[in-house]
Amino acid sequence: MDLRTIGxxxxxxxxxxxxxxxxxxxxxxxxxxxxxxxx
Length: 39
What we know:
Keywords: Membrane, Transmembrane, Transmembrane helix. This protein is mostly helical.
């Protein structure tokens, strides 16, 4: 494996991690909004 392949793999892993992190934050916010609107 050359450096470019390793860099690409790391890049995609980081992208996946960020997207999961953002998704969980958005889910929490959605729940909070629903709770807020119900009250």
